[in-house]
Amino acid sequence: MIASRDVWLRWTVAFTLGELVGFGGIPVLGAAVALWLTSGLEPAARSIVLYGIAVLGGLGEGAVLGWFQARVLCRLLPRLDSRQWILATAIAASFAWALGMLAPTLDDVIGLTVPAQIAIWIPAGIVILLSIGTAQALVLRGLVERPSTWVVANVLGWLAGLPWTFALPAALPENAPAYVWVTTFVLSGILMGATAGAITGIALVRIVARRVRPAGGPD
Q1: What is the pLDDT of residue 46?
Q2: For labeling, which of 54, 75, 88, 142 is most exposed (least CB within 10 Å)?
Q3: How far is CA 40 from CA 43, 44, 46, in A?
Q4: Mean of per-residue pLDDT scores for the chain
Q5: How many CB atoms lie within 10 A of CB 125?
């Protein structure tokens, strides 16, 4: 059995690397594509294109994160289907981006009152926090006992990690150089991944200890 501390460390590092590449790298590429595609477009059309790029970028972010996570999980849960894990994480991340970008996109296209934006943001925020953990918990069914605890761990992890992605960019002036924005997004991804990874890693140690072994032999 791999030591608990080693499990936690491997998971946290994998989570951090996943978000470094997925959130720190893919958005930079997406921003370059967005600038090219939206050049000369009206604000409403530009927002719609950016929305589509963000959703596709979320798919990429989730796939990268899921891949890094699966490298650790497959050692702990040999019966885990890594492809299902990666796909579930990718779809959930894309869905989360779709919800997260919904209110600002609608505001740009049709205009929204502050109460209307709040009415969208509150349920959207709840679903965003639940999305990845719920999707991954479905893959864990039959492999561990009480996979629902993975949902709770992810809610706590993302609740602590996501604020980095808002706080750091918000601190930058709009006229900051491009390299500053890129550096900030990369740093945001690292801090988000490390924070969420550390919290979910604690839960992972306990969940793996309760893994379900197949009849007739060890897991």
Answers
A1: 82
A2: 142
A3: 9, 12, 9
A4: 88
A5: 15
Write down the pTM of the prediction. Answer: 0.88
Query: Is residue 193 domain-resident?
Result: yes
Q: Which residue has the tokens 């992605």?
A: 165
Running DSSP on this structure, what letter comes out for residue 58? Answer: H
Which two structure tokens, joined as six digits, stand for 2? 């791999």
What is the number of structural domains in the chain? 1
Residue range(s) defining the domain that contains residue 160: 4-209
Q: Please name the residue ranges forming H helices in the chain.
A: 4-22, 26-37, 43-76, 82-100, 102-109, 114-140, 148-161, 163-170, 178-209
Query: What pLDDT, on a 0 to 100 scale, did the predictor assign at position 1?
Result: 45
CA atoms within 13 A on the CB side of 194: 9
Burial class of residue 189 (count of CB atoms within 10 Å of its CB; 0-12, 13-18, 19+): buried
Query: What would the two tokens of residue 90 be?
Result: 């990718």
User: Is 124 within 8 Å of 130 (Cβ atoms)?
Assistant: no
- pLDDT tens for 144-201 read 999 999 999 999 999 999 999 889 888 888 788 877 887 888 898 899 999 999 999 9
Residue numbers of the chain with a pLDDT score lower than 70: 1-2, 27-28, 30-32, 34, 37, 213-219
Residue 218 within a domain: no
Q: Does some domain include residue 25?
A: yes
Q: What is the distance of C-alpha 80 from the center of its chain?
A: 20
